[in-house]
Design a protein that fits this description.
Elements: E1 2-11, E2 16-18, H1 19-23, H2 30-37, E3 41-43, H3 50-65, E4 74-78, H4 89-97, E5 103-107, H5 113-127, E6 132-139, E7 159-168, E8 172-179, E9 187-189, H6 196-199, E10 208-210, H7 212-234, E11 243-246, H8 251-261, H9 272-275, H10 282-292, E12 301-308, E13 312-319
Parallel strand pairs: 4-5, 4-6, 11-12
Antiparallel strand pairs: 1-7, 2-3, 6-7, 8-13, 9-10, 12-13
Helix pairs in contact: 3-4, 7-8
Bound molecules: oxa(dethia)-CoA.
The site of oxa(dethia)-CoA (UT7) has 20 residues, from helix 2 and helix 7.
Length: 320
């Protein structure tokens, strides 16, 4: 018995912010951003929180799956930008969609959050503990960006993607996940300022900081490594995979993966041009777009892979 994806959904805020919009207040230019990242525009939330985006994506995935929300037994939201320290975004989604029988919790693994969620539910379903799961990746990264820092703010966008999984004979073949806390300093965001008791100040929210080149070097090595690992461990050749659904962080990272894996770009779908890097939401948004456009055929072989702050990484190999 394994987990099979039986429905997908996604949602992004309406407001589109183009590179030219950023040029109005930032020392940057459209050509630089397109060439160095592949991003043309991103969505930025106006008033909607991470839980709002997650709820919309979840409702669409539940409708697509055609299930009763009461059937969901485990509900995970991968997010590093929850609206609250507590309660979790997952319990917000649980309440909104009526998944009253689920255990609901968030997973913090930055851009790898959705894949970590798949890794967890796959284990529960394979063991026979749960039969139906909802996994979501949702972020409002825009609220933790320093909009004066051109090295980070041009890259990210807001959005959410979701998948309903159910116990079945075929589906997820294998998942893997890993982390390396020694590299935590290269990409981070302090939650709240410290020492407020001593200083008498109110806690202030932190902003994202990133050593872009370090993350880039890590990503171009790690993505091909984990894709190769999961395929080798499963005895499946690269050419047998129909779609490589990879975290959308930078078009150059995707092109590098294509070269290193010797996989044509036609098998590596791209939507970073329209959304930027939506962190944990990037893989499920892309998956949902492919599903709705009819690009996924029953029996297709998919590899998903993500990486992010922590540092963290994860991959999933599955049959559609
Ligand atoms: O989910 C994981 C999240 N993070 C990532 O995936 C980040 C991975 N890293 C990257 O995508 C790239 O490192 C960046 C896109 C962040 C930066 O690209 P880069 O090719 O590594 O550029 P750089 O930092 O080496 O900067 C090159 C030049 C510098 O100018 P000088 O010193 O050569 O004069 C920067 O000041 O480009 C300048 N620059 C910019 N210019 C216009 C940096 N950011 C910008 C900008 N607009 N937004």
């Amino acid at each position: 018995m394994t987990a099979r994806i039986i429905g997908t959904g996604s949602y992004a805020p309406e407001r589109i912010v183009t590179n030219k919009d950023l040029m109005k207040f930032l020392d940057t230019d459209d050509e630089w951003i397109r060439e160095r990242t592949g991003i043309c525009e991103r969505r930025v939330s106006a008033g909607e929180g991470t839980s709002d985006l997650a709820i919309h994506a979840a409702e669409r995935a539940i409708t697509d799956a055609g299930i009763d929300p009461k059937e969901i037994e485990i509900l995970i939201v991968g997010t590093c930008t929850p609206d609250n320290g507590f309660p979790s975004a997952a319990t917000d989604v649980q309440r909104a969609v009526g998944a009253v029988n689920a255990v609901a919790f968030d997973v913090t693994a930055a851009c790898s959050g959705f894949i970590y969620g798949l890794h967890i539910v796959q284990s529960f379903i394979r063991c026979g503990i749960y039969k139906t799961a909802l996994v979501i990746g949702a972020e409002t990264i825009s609220k933790v960006l320093d909009w004066t820092d051109r090295g980070t703010c041009i890259l990210f966008g807001d959005g959410a993607g979701a998948a309903v999984l159910r116990a079945d004979e075929t589906g997820v073949i294998r998942t893997l996940a890993g982390s390396d806390g020694r590299k935590g300093h290269v990409l981070g965001c302090q939650a709240r300022t410290m020492d407020n008791f001593l200083t008498g100040r109110k806690p202030e929210p932190g902003f994202m900081t990133m050593d872009g080149q370090e993350v880039f070097k890590f990503a171009v090595k790690k993505v091909p490594e984990i894709v190769s690992q999961i395929l080798e461990e499963s005895g499946i050749g690269r050419e047998q995979v129909d779609h490589y659904v990879l975290h959308q962080a930078n078009i150059r990272i995707l092109e590098s993966a294509s070269r290193r894996l010797k996989v044509p770009m036609e098998k590596i779908p791209v939507n970073i041009d329209r959304y930027g890097n939506t962190s944990a939401a990037s893989v499920p948004i892309l998956l949902d777009e492919m599903n709705r456009e009819g690009r996924l055929k029953r029996g297709d072989t998919l590899v998903m892979a993500g990486f992010g702050a922590g540092l963290t990484w994860g991959a999933a190999l599955l049959k559609w």
